[in-house]
Amino acid sequence: MRNSTAFELGLVIVGGLGSALLIGLGLGWAESLLIGLCVLLARHAWNLFRLARLIRRQHRLVPPFPSGIWGDIYRAIGQYQQRGRKGRKRQLRFFRRFREAANSVPDALVVLDKSRRIEWANPAAQVLMDVHWPPDDGKQLSEVFDHPELASYIVAGEYARPLEVAPTHNRSIMLSIRVAPFGERKKQRLVVGRDITKVFHLNLIRRDFVANASHELRTPLTVITGFLETLADSAQTPAGHRRPLNRMQHQAERMRSIIEDLLTLSRLEMDEQAVEVGPVDVPCELEQIVADASALSSGRHQFQIEIDSDLMLIGKDSELRSAFSNILFNAVKHTPPGSQIQLSWAQTASGPVFRVTDNGPGIAPKHIPRLTERFYRVDKARSRESGGTGLGLAIVKHVLSRHEARLAVASEPGQGTSFSCHFPPASTLSAIQLERQRQQAHQTSSLAATQPSV
Ligand code: ADP
Fold first, then answer.
1. In this structure, is residue 283 part of a structural domain?
2. Among the three residues 235, 270, 305, which one is the final residue of a domain in this structure?
3. Are residues 408 and 294 in the same domain?
4. Percent of residues, the chain, with pLDDT higher than 90
5. Are residues 186 and 204 located together in one domain of the fold?
6. Strand 302-307 relative to strand 340-348: parallel, antiparallel, unpaired?
7. Backbone angles phi, psi at 139, to 5 degrees
């Protein structure tokens, strides 16, 4: 920089000397100065136009550079260009590596723009989702991967749970689809389709095996229970055999409960969504459940019941009955005599909530996340003693998930436990609406009965 300033100063001095020479040769001082300035200006103009042309044509600025300040400018721009080129090359290399990595992923990856049009897809998307890229570039995903469930899943924007679908172009595979919003205001979406055919079939086999085994065990168990009952009731049974017979009866009853719960779980697993939903008179169901819980408690517990008699649900009555009774019976089974049990069924700002709170022994925090696992018990021996199967809360979880509801557990060891089921507001039904629906159903059936049959 210092060199170029000296060079520019030198130029001015040489120009001055040149002008002085011209004055000495007889030219006027003003003319001489003008000529000197014109020479300097012409040099600047030439360098400026040359630079503008090189930049316009996107030429690389390489040495030799002009001398003086223009040399500095050319060099600085040349260095900028070089840095930019290196950055671009690095980006390109990274982009290529990223593309190669994305192309080698066995899951289908499809990038959608904010209008849900296909922007990019990897080769696996071709096999798994029938999305060919680049030919399908700019098309709506629903045009290519025709699946109504996926279309509404993407529009709904609720991606916490993956969607399991059998693609229409290949019914033999099963996909688990996840959607991740990204980009500006999370308007773009990355759709990830994973082939879960093997796991799905294994699950089916496991489910069928459990259902069949439970079913097969039912009949022999009924026979055994029948004979045990006959033996226990018979006057000819020796007195010394009564105790073991009673224990055998107790264990047979436990086996029957486990089989029934396993069959219930298998039935619940058959379909993710609750089928044949309808209005459920929850207050009426709860009345019966509370009566059963009182019978189970035989006066050993104090019950406090608060039920909103106007609050109904849309759902499956038998499933809801099973979930609510499991939670309430647990409070009876897992708390000592004299404990208080509060049951409430009420509308809240976030939807209807069923809650059972007790002041029993409580549950340590480490057990809470595992309570809904099959056969998970906090205290195995005590649970068996109280006739628990270890499947109750697994059933509750399944029932709630089929009703788009969730289970929340709050517990303090030594203080008590609270189980609550949170239902979505959309599943609410008032008593008036329920009555109206019943009347409509009644009118339709009586109308059908009066129609002459063809
Ligand atoms: P179980 O048939 O053993 O009751 P569940 O799946 O219904 O099986 O419950 C799992 C475990 O959670 C129970 O074994 C018990 O240890 C614990 N549990 C459930 N409810 C309560 C409660 N109200 N208070 C204390 N522990 C409970």
1. yes
2. 270
3. yes
4. 52
5. no
6. parallel
7. -80, 155
Ligand 1 center–CA 330 separation, angstroms: 6
Asked if pLDDT for residue 430 goes beyond 50, the answer is yes
For ligand 1, atom 7, the nearest C-alpha belongs to: 392
Dihedral angle over CA of 65, 67, 72, 75, nearest 10: 10
Give me the domain span that covers residue 75.
2-99
Pairwise pLDDT comparison (450 vs 436), residue with the higher score: 436
Number of structural domains in the chain: 4
Ligand 1 site residues, Cβ closer than 6 angstroms: 326, 330-331, 333-335, 358, 360-361, 363, 371, 376-379, 383, 388-394, 417
What's the pLDDT score for residue 21? 76
Do 423 and 290 sit in the same domain of this protein? yes
Does residue 35 have a pLDDT over 70? yes
The two three-digit tokens of residue 354, written as one number? 């069923």
| Mean pLDDT of the region 163-175 | 89
20 occurs within a structural domain: yes
What DSSP designation does 360 have? Answer: S
Would you say 106 and 122 are in contact if contact means Cβ atoms under 8 Å apart? no
How far does residue 370's CA lie from ligand 1's centre (Å)?
11
| Model confidence pLDDT, tens digit, residues 90-134 | 999 999 998 899 889 999 999 999 888 999 999 999 999 999 999
